[in-house]
Structure formats: C-alpha cells, structure tokens
Design goal:
Elements: H1 2-26, H2 28-31, E1 34-37, E2 42-44, H3 45-61, E3 66-68, E4 72-73, E5 81-89, H4 91-95, E6 102-109, E7 112-120, E8 125-130, E9 135-138, E10 141-142, E11 155-157, H5 168-178, E12 183-185, H6 190-198, E13 204-211, H7 212-224, E14 228-232, E15 239-245
Parallel strand pairs: 3-5, 11-12, 11-13
Antiparallel strand pairs: 1-2, 3-4, 5-6, 6-7, 7-8, 8-9, 9-10, 13-15, 14-15
Helix pairs in contact: 1-3, 6-7
Length: about 250
C-alpha cells in the first residue's frame, strides 16, 4: 500500500507543514510564550500549537499513526509505517527571532526513512525527499548534495543538543575534529542542517544525542539527494547519533 500511495501521503504532510507554518508566522507574538525552560532547553506555546494542528491534519487524511515530539505516540503500537513529527525544530531560534527554524515531518517504514517534508517557513522554502523515487526537491526543483571530497575544502555543521557532554575531554575531541574542516557552523536546527547537506550548501552534518524527530525527515531528504544519512546509537528515549554527508567525505 505504501508504494502506491506515497506521493499522496507526502501531499498530506505538505499540507500539514504549510498550515502549521502559517500558524507560526501569523501568530508569532502569541505563540512565543515559554511554557518550559531549563539551563539548556526551551519549550514554547508554539511547539504545542503547531503539533496539535499537524496531528489534526494528518489524522484526518492519513491512516498511519504518529510519533510526535510533544505528545509521543498516537497509539502504543505504531506498526511498521508511521509519521514522525517535529512541530518546530529550532525553538530557541524562533524564540529569539533568528530565522533558522522549520517544521519537520518524516514517514518511516521499519524504522528506515521513507519520505521527508521540511518547511522553512521563514523563507517559504519547502524541501521534500521521496526515497522510493530517490528524488529530493526544494520548491519543486531537484536538489543534490555537493561533490567535495576533502574536509579541508568542506563545511561542517554540528551542534550541542540538550544533554551534551560538556566535559573538557568531550569538547576537546570535538575541537580536534573541527580543525580538519575549512569552515564549521552551528545553526540550532538539525532539520535545516539536513536540508543544507541535501542541497549542497554544506558537506556534512554530525551530532550526537539528537532526537529521532529532529532528523528523520532530513535523513530521507539527504538520502534522496544522493547523500548518505547514517543514524546510530538509538536509545529508548529516541535519542540518536547522526552523520549526514554528501557520501564523498
């Protein structure tokens, strides 16, 4: 069934992402209220409102269950094929009006990315990856990863997610890796980092301890754009380690 209907399912997620994007743009002042904060993390009314709208649309159109960042599983047994929703990736950026944040909706089958829809609502950019067709697009135009082969010529995106090991040893290891690259960026959105790899803007994105909903749509988009999305060290709380590359570096 999923092979025959994947294009339709992608259209459902596109509708959900665009409607949620309108909500986040048009109601920014109202939705930018903190409902939870700690020393390294923040949650806004925007996260919850966006997720509720996305789930409402997907449930009305699609038969597949949902794993979402704020509310978890829509049913205890998600089965082989289900949606994975991050209603606002880059919440801290949204909170401070830094225009690097997005809506991320992925469809997985047997825990492998099948499709990815990421809507960069600040720039009205829609990224879509279809792993059955091996095509990724940005606003309906095909995109591909870069062709660089050496770190000394390339750009790395990385990050320090909630729960990062900030010990001197761990940070020193990260710095040693950074020194191998021409440039290094931290942008505060794993999903947007994935899109930048897929569209050839950067050459590799890596991060440890990121959450599955942050990266699964991006994984589909990277793979379908000719790159390699490696997801490992899967934890019970859905934290994972990732390396998304152009498959050359």
């Amino acid at each position: 069934m999923i092979v025959d209907s994947l294009d339709q399912e992608i259209d459902f997620a596109i509708t959900a992402s665009k409607e949620a994007g309108k909500l986040l743009v048009n109601n920014r002042n109202e939705l930018n209220d903190e409902i939870l904060t700690n020393s390294k993390d923040i949650k806004l009314k925007a996260d919850v409102s966006s997720e509720n709208l996305i789930k409402e649309i997907l449930i009305s159109k699609s038969a597949f269950p949902i794993l979402a960042e704020e509310t978890g599983k829509s049913k205890e047994n998600l089965g082989e094929t289900f949606w994975v929703v991050d209603p606002l990736d880059g919440t801290a950026n949204y909170n401070r009006d830094i225009p690097i944040c997005c809506i991320s909706i992925g469809l997985v089958h047997k825990m492998e990315p099948l499709a990815g829809i990421i809507f960069d609502f600040n720039n009205n950019d829609l990224y879509v990856g279809n792993c059955l067709k091996n095509i990724s697009t940005l606003n309906n135009k095909e995109i591909n990863v870069s062709t660089l082969k050496q770190k000394k010529q390339g750009i790395l995106i990385t990050g320090l997610p909630h729960g990062t090991d900030y010990s001197d040893e761990a940070l020193n290891k990260m710095v040693i890796d950074m020194q191998l690259w021409k440039k290094v960026r931290m942008i505060g959105s794993a999903a947007m980092a994935s899109c930048y790899v897929a569209s050839g803007k950067v050459d590799l994105y890596k991060e440890n301890g990121i959450f599955f909903w942050d990266i699964v749509a991006g994984a589909a988009i990277v793979n379908s754009a000719g790159g390699l999305a490696e997801i490992s060290n899967f934890q019970d709380n859905y934290q994972v380690d990732v390396i998304f590359s152009n498959a050359q570096i």
